[in-house]
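in:
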């Protein structure tokens, strides 16, 4: 019995010591001090009151009505909407009708370009389906083309000529031409300017007819209205075929020539439908769908 009493007393003493140590620990400065614990409780109570107040304000505040999303046409300007109203939605026009509409629906005051967009059933990742060509438009492009010749020989019609003159301008980052024609012998000298000319589509290329021994012919064709086209990464060809001032008849000549070129470049590996869609539009004007059978 005495032993049990002694053990009970020892346990009681130990608990008292631990309780005293805990009280001392709490009383010391720091995060567990009485002051810190009290401040934490007050901070939590303040946050709770703030959250409750925010909820009450949200309930009392009237909900704003969400405005319905406007269509792309509704977001356009008045002139564009007026022009678009002349085009029947969902209808595919034959080429003469489409070009007549394009001329009539140009909403700008300047002489806008007329563009043709042809969506082809090709995969540009395959070499044989990466369609690229150039042609001379019968009625021209309507643009004043500046042609530079990277050769020392004099060529009639060239705006800029001479290896040294063009090299000095390129060293300064100056480009005062729209088309650059070069002979095969001079091409190595243009290699250092590939980063300047390449992204702008100005690097001479045999496929585009700008690397040739017959420089005079290349200059004459460029001035006459030669255009180059190439499918983009989604398989679409984009070509400007003239100006609104040309009128529907001349524009049709150019578009027919483009269609013939695109059709002639159909890859043998493409089976079934070759032309998926054709659209015509002027600069800043509405798009007009053309019948696929026209190509």
């Amino acid at each position: 019995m005495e032993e049990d009493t002694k053990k009970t007393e020892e346990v009681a003493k130990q608990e008292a010591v631990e309780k005293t140590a805990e009280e001392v620990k709490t009383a010391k400065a720091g995060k567990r001090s009485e002051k810190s614990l009290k401040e934490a409780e007050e901070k939590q109570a303040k946050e709770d009151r703030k959250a409750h107040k925010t909820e009450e304000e949200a309930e009392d505040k009237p909900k704003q009505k969400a405005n319905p999303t406007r269509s792309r046409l509704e977001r356009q300007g008045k002139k564009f909407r007026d022009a678009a109203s002349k085009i029947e939605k969902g209808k595919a026009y034959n080429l003469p009708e489409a070009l007549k509409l394009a001329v009539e629906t140009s909403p700008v005051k300047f002489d806008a370009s007329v563009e043709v967009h042809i969506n082809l059933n090709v995969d540009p990742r395959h070499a044989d389906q990466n369609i690229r060509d150039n042609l001379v438009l019968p009625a021209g492009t309507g643009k004043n083309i500046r042609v530079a010749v990277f050769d020392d020989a004099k060529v009639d019609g060239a705006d800029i000529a001479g290896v040294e003159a063009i090299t000095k301008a390129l060293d300064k980052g100056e480009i005062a031409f729209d088309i650059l024609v070069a002979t095969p012998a001079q091409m190595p000298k243009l290699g250092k300017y590939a980063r300047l000319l390449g992204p702008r589509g100005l690097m001479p290329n045999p496929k585009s007819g700008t690397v040739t021994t017959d420089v005079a012919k290349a200059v004459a064709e460029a001035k006459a209205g030669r255009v180059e086209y190439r499918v983009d990464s989604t398989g679409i060809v984009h070509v400007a075929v003239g100006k609104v001032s040309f009128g529907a008849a001349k524009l049709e000549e150019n578009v027919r020539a483009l269609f013939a070129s695109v059709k002639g470049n159909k890859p043998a590996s493409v089976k079934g439908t070759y032309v998926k869609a054709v659209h015509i539009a002027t600069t800043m004007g509405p798009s007009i769908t053309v019948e696929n059978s026209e190509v």
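note: Strands lie at 113-120, 132-136, 147-150, 160-161, 179-182, 226-230, 236-243, 275-282, 288-290.
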